[in-house]
Structures are given as structure tokens and as C-alpha cells.
TrEMBL record:
Keywords: Membrane, Transmembrane, Transmembrane helix. The chain crosses the membrane at residues 6-26. This is Alpha/beta hydrolase. The keyword Cell division does not apply. The lineage of its organism: Bacteria, Bacillati, Bacillota, Bacilli, Bacillales. InterPro entries: AB_hydrolase_fold, DUF915_hydro-like. It comes from the Bacteria. It comes from Oceanobacillus kimchii. The keyword Metal-binding does not apply. Pfam families: DUF915.
Length: 271
């Protein structure tokens, strides 16, 4: 690479960084004051990253044309909420992605951080009602938010989708020989965090779709299915995908799961 090319590359990077900093420091220039509709918020699971739902949301927006990924929220380890608005003045966001820097934190800390994001959405964009989609531990956190925060002045939940979420814990003992952090402790069968969920009252007006796969060796259908003991039966729907090849991480890359989400959120179908 020649000297001029290197200089051009450096200048380009500086411009991009400058633009990002400007958007972050002066958000009023890029944000609409009021968004209409109910955005769907996606919450990754244990050890999840921006890639956990990133490819799914790319399909939703660019392959299917189901809506736009309006926001990405990053929450730092100390709980600072960083808001990245991708809308560029187009229209109200359909999808919001939350990424937790500490992706191995306890249920309690994770739910607190999720509530901070939703409170920011409420105070900044006047969003008072959302749908939640959570994969693995993210589904447990979404459930905890719905029961603990949604009735306390935070945005309420219209529909909740949980995907491969082990509500009775992860049954594999080998799993905990590798993982031994706060989240792992909460994911153990019989943990205080899981038992606490059983004592809480689930809102009677929230509809729930619970998705499992027979090929999931982390969140096996038996553990996933214990959610039915918490949700009022008239508001509960469960789909177990009979596919031995569809593993835990593959759930958020599955076209079948894509269609189940779309149907439940926007078509009110019973398929």
C-alpha cells in the first residue's frame, strides 16, 4: 500500500470515528422525538454477543423485509447504557438489540441492566410497551423483567418469546465443570434464582411463545417446558421443534424459528 493510500485510509477512519462521536454526543440531530408502535427487543443469552441475534435481525430486515433494526444498546459492566440509533430518520424501529458487556452476570444484575435500557427507551423515545424475545438465559431474563419491572413504571410487555431457555436449569453436570461464574450458578437446577421466578406472579395480559428443540442438549425440552408452570395456560403457547440437528446456538439461525416469531408477533396465527 502506497503512502497516499495509507493517508487516505487514516483520514477515512478519523472521519468515521468523528461522525460516530458526534452522533453519540449530539443525539438530537439524528433521533425522532416520538416513535409509534411496539418495538421488539432482543436479548441474548449466557456468553452472548452482538452476533447472537445479529444474523437473525439481518434476515428480518434485509431478507424478509419485516422491519428495521432501529437501535442497538450496549450496557457496560458497570451498568452504563450506550444508545446507538441506526434509524437515520427513516421510520419507527421494529427491532431493538441489547448487548450486555458482562454476559456472565447473575439473573438479578442482567435484569436490572435490561430494565435500565427499557427505561431509557421510555424516557427518550416515549416507548411504553414492547415485545421481548430472549434466547437461552436471555429468555429467563426477559421473563424476570416482565414479572419484576414491567408493573413498576417501566415499559410494559405485550408479547414474550423465549427460545431454548432452561427454566428448570441446565441438567448437564459437565456444563458446570467448565462454567462457574454468577450466571452459571443461577442456571443450576434448583438455584435460588430459578426458584424465585416460581414465586412471582406473571401478568395475566402478556402472551407467551416458548420454543424448544429436541436437538438442544443445553436447554432440553423438559427444562424449557417448565415455563408452563408460571404462565396462565390461556396465554401460553409452546412449540417443540422435532429436529435432532437443531442445537442450542442454532435456534437463532433457524428459518423455522424466524417464521414462528413472525407468526406469533404479527399474524396472531396458531400454526
Amino acid at each position: 500500500m502506497g503512502k497516499k493510500s495509507i493517508i487516505s485510509l487514516v483520514v477515512g477512519i478519523v472521519i468515521l470515528i468523528g461522525a460516530a462521536i458526534f452522533m453519540f454526543l449530539y443525539p438530537g440531530n439524528t433521533r425522532s422525538e416520538i416513535y409509534e408502535g411496539e418495538p421488539t427487543v432482543f436479548i441474548h443469552g449466557y456468553k452472548g454477543t452482538e452476533h447472537s441475534f445479529g444474523f437473525m435481525l439481518d434476515r428480518f430486515e434485509n431478507k424478509y423485509g419485516w422491519g428495521n433494526k432501529g437501535f442497538v444498546y450496549y450496557v457496560t459492566k458497570d451498568g452504563q447504557v450506550l444508545d446507538y440509533n441506526l434509524n437515520k430518520g427513516r421510520y419507527a424501529p421494529t427491532f431493538v438489540q441489547i448487548v450486555l458487556e458482562d454476559n456472565r452476570a447473575s439473573f438479578a444484575d442482567s435484569a436490572q441492566w435490561i430494565s435500565s435500557v427499557l427505561l431509557h427507551m421510555q424516557s427518550t423515545y416515549n416507548i411504553d410497551r414492547v415485545n421481548l424475545v430472549g434466547h437461552s438465559m436471555g429468555g429467563i431474563i426477559a421473563l424476570k423483567y416482565t414479572m419484576e419491572f414491567a408493573s413498576q413504571g417501566y415499559p410494559e410487555v405485550d408479547k414474550l418469546i423465549t427460545i431454548g431457555s432452561p427454566f428448570d436449569g441446565i441438567y448437564s453436570e459437565e456444563y458446570f465443570q467448565i462454567h462457574n461464574d454468577e450466571a452459571a450458578e443461577d442456571l443450576k437446577p434448583g438455584s435460588n434464582a430459578l426458584q424465585l421466578l416460581q414465586t412471582m406472579t406473571f401478568p395475566s395480559d402478556v402472551k407467551v411463545l416458548n420454543i424448544a428443540s429436541t436437538g438442544d442438549s443445553v436447554a432440553v425440552p423438559q427444562s424449557v417446558g417448565t415455563l408452563r408452570s408460571i404462565i396462565p395456560p390461556e396465554n401460553f403457547k409452546e412449540v417443540i421443534i422435532e429436529n435432532q440437528e437443531l442445537g442450542h446456538s442454532g435456534l437463532h439461525e433457524s428459518v423455522k424459528v424466524d417464521k414462528l416469531i413472525h407468526s406469533f408477533l404479527w399474524q396472531e396465527s396458531d400454526e
